[in-house]
Amino acid sequence: MVSGGNASSLPLVGGKPEPTIKELSSPGRRASNFPKLDVPEVKINHESLKKEKARLPEVSEHDLVMHYSRLAHRNFAVDLGFYPLGSCTMKYNPRFADSIASDSRFANIHPSMPEEFTQGCLKVMYEIGNYLCEITGMDYASFQPPAGASGELTGLLIIKKYLEINNLINKTEIIVPDSAHGTNPASARMAGFTVVEVETDARGMVNIEKLKEIVNENTAGLMLTNPNTGGLFEEEILTISQIIHNAGGLLYYDGANLNAIVGTSRPGDMGFDIVHSNLHKTFATPHGGGGPGSGPVAVKEFLKDYLPGPIAENKDRKYNWYQPENSIGRMHGYHGNFLVTLRALVYMKLLGKEGLDTLGAYAVLNARYLSSKVSKIIPLAYDEPCMHEFVTSVKDLKKSHKIKAYDVGKALLDKGFHSPTIYFPLIVPEALMFEPTETQSKETLDDLADSLKSIISDLQQEDIVLEDYPKNLPVGRPNELIPAKFLTVNWGDFELLEITE
Fold this sequence. Notes:
By secondary structure, this protein is α/β, with parallel strands linked by helices. The chain has a domain at about 95-350: 3-Layer(aba) Sandwich (Aspartate Aminotransferase, domain 2), CATH 3.40.640.10. The chain is built from 16 helices and 14 strands. The protein has a 7-stranded mixed β-sheet, sandwiched between helices. Helix 5 runs parallel beside helix 12 and helix 12 (about 340-375) packs across helix 15. The two termini are about 15 Å apart.
């Protein structure tokens, strides 16, 4: 364990600091009782079996429940406070979607069951495919990819397959903006492409002149999210599309920021050929914490035969699976994360067309309102009207008072707010990226802006030690260098490290 802050700041249990699970352990205690064997006992002798029992803590059921409940209460969560994490859309999602996804008729069904017994599930996949295509302006969709990065790889493998089928093997380069999410160049490399970076201009948009210079006969495509990672709408998107298509390349839409434009504009209308959507960001699955995601990929008609299958279809009033003719193959063992897909369909039906048409508009409204207040405290990175998120920079405060983006994020935790994204996009020094989402109230946004103003004022005081923040949480500021250089993952070698600067 790497400690930070004072021991007195730890939660108290019975007047003492909260015990670890190891300290709760006592020989012979158990948290479960198994029924008596009703079948003959069989001894297994194998060289891989351990000679000794695992050294696991021995605790009662009540101690175990209390321990994990205490840990859960120490976590920040979207149900407890504002989560303005830029580029990740950490918004509230209705419990109604969870209740449907928890229905045993969906949750307990096995994906290998025959089609005749899973007509309801196939209908879910078929319906949401139609909805998603309508929302994104595409023609066909596959729900195989289980996450956003997997969706990226899927889209790039489709591009690769398209190039191979059409004997365009000279096209080996994928263009990626210098402000892109890190998974973009990583996915392109995994698919076997060479990554070419295009610069961002002074306004925070793709530099059109630089793009023209790097596009050539080897250009396979461009990866882009719109709004981009600076929270700005690419005004020249039709020109960008024309440049790439004239060179015989394809346009790939990273759906990380789709939440900003749902019901307002569609990637397909902008000229994109392939779109991946993060259902876990935009359509009702609580995001973060390592939970399941879903990154379905939708394409224009000329690419439908390359989609990963199987895909649900409605034929002769019966739902069944079909495999596209030149499919890139499976991207998942079965059919993606089905319950995430179900949540998304429930969310879409719950909001209806009118609700979905206002989703992006309210996300943009909240972001513009918050940016108008925050910009008076911390300068914006780009002096342009933002969409769903915006980027600020404390580079001047770093020069004048040694205040870093990291310090502001930590201090916000003391005020009951999760930190915004820090140090992204990488092209903005000391960046703080805020995304309020459409689910936050004006009062909450005002509270965040007021807290940020107070923090910046406090951090500039001469007697303030920046490293003291956060002060009021169970764990203060850990030294992140120690675990990075001396990673300890073995319980037997576990020891408490006293961290000093």
